Amino acid sequence: MITGTTQLLGVIGHPIAHSLSPVMHNAAIAALGADFAYLPFPIAPEHLQTALDGFAAIGLHGFSVTIPHKQAIMPMLTEIAEVAQAIGAVNTVCRTEQGWYGTNTDAAGFLAPLQQIDRDWSQTAAVILGNGGAARAVVAACAQLGCRSIQVVGRNPEKLQEFQQSWQHSSFAENLSVRNWSDLPQLLPEANLLVNTTPIGMHPHDQASPLTATEVQQISADTIAYDLIYTPRPTLFLQQAASQGAMILDGLEMLVQQGAVALELWLKQPVSADVMRHALLEYLDRKHSAI
Ligand code: NAP
């Protein structure tokens, strides 16, 4: 129940109507009976500072940040966690006595399902397809796991160089190298953890895969194939990897777990990822059956 004491949380983005965060956060808040409510805030880029001032004025407790504000908000915050600085983006903001503290929970969300798997991560060669925003969180996560090598594969040599340079002074990327897409035939047989961070295969392009049929054959049975995409479930990439005997993980758990980590920061108590996952799956099911 929303009462006079209810504290406000939310998500800022532009657009924001597609966001799944209100569904899963409000479900977890209700399950706990916590005195919070989580709302979507559509904030145009030119209104970001005004919105932040307004949030301070009304005592907003904390908020999630999505496109296009993840980088733009950084200079407006009082403190930024090391992981968010390394990734170069903030997705979670908490109000503090000094002002606003920004962090990034995507790496923790990506890691959560991997941490359930019994592996010697120090022997793991990670191959990451794509060099965009999500790839940055995956690099930080693979560094936290202690992977033996982290190879980021991209199609644009200039962007790849920029990507590598941006990590130069970061402790998160000691084992990082960048590779061209044409190097995949050498990289795939050695990959223990193969991550798709490109949007290739995302609904409605369900029949697309980042790998050719020949490349798929090079995935070995002890590979973990991880796709950040969560619609469709599974993607063609994951179906192909499973046909090679690989273990597969999709992006839904990352989405749920990054949200759970954020909500725990705001509420300062454990939250149920199960409730959040259930709410999300139910919502996605309802949405798809309505199409
Ligand atoms: P982004 O910043 O736009 O990066 C996309 C990357 O994919 C870029 O490196 C791009 O290469 C590459 N790419 C796109 N099309 C390609 C193609 N045909 N061939 C080769 N490379 C291609 O996007 P993002 O924010 O990183 O998001 C990427 C995906 O991750 C999306 O599907 C998103 O939904 C998903 N995601 C999921 C979660 C989760 O919680 N599960 C979180 C974040 C993101 P260029 O730079 O050369 O264009």
Task: Please give a structural write-up.
The chain is an alpha/beta fold and about 290 residues long. The protein folds into 2 domains: about 5-105 and about 255-290, Leucine Dehydrogenase, chain A, domain 1 (Rossmann fold, 3-Layer(aba) Sandwich); about 110-250, 3-Layer(aba) Sandwich (Rossmann fold). It contains 11 helices and 12 strands. The strands form 2 sheets. It has a 6-stranded mixed sheet. A 6-stranded parallel sheet has the order 9-8-7-10-11-12, with helices on both faces. The longest helix is centred in the C-terminal third of the chain and has 18 residues, at about 275-290. The chain binds NADP nicotinamide-adenine-dinucleotide phosphate. NADP nicotinamide-adenine-dinucleotide phosphate (NAP) binds near residues 134, 199, 228, 254 and 258.
Task: Produce a short descriptive summary.
With 291 residues, the protein is α/β, with parallel strands linked by helices. It is built from eleven helices and twelve strands.
Q: How would you describe this structure in keywords?
A:
single chain; 291 residues; alpha/beta; Rossmann fold; 2 domains; six-stranded mixed beta sheet; six-stranded parallel beta sheet; 11 helices; 12 strands; binds NADP nicotinamide-adenine-dinucleotide phosphate
Number of beta-strand segments: 12
CATH architecture type of the largest domain: 3-Layer(aba) Sandwich
Fraction in helix: 25-40%
> Could you tell me how far the N terminus lies from the C terminus, measured between alpha carbons in angstroms?
31 Å
Let me know the average pLDDT.
Answer: 96
Question: How would you describe the oligomerization state of the chains in this entry?
Answer: single chain
Global shape: globular
Give the CATH topology of the largest domain: Rossmann fold
CATH class of the largest domain, named Alpha Beta
Spatial order of the strands in the main sheet? 2-1-3-5-6-4
Q: What's the alpha carbon Rg, rounded to whole Å?
A: 19 Å
The CATH superfamily of the largest domain is known as NAD(P)-binding Rossmann-like Domain
Low-confidence runs: none
Helix/strand-derived class?
A: alpha/beta
Could you tell me which ligands this complex binds, including any ions or cofactors? NADP nicotinamide-adenine-dinucleotide phosphate
Q: What letter string, H or E per element, gives the SSE order?
A: EHEHEEHEEHEHEHEHEHEHEHH
Beta-strand content bin: 15-25%
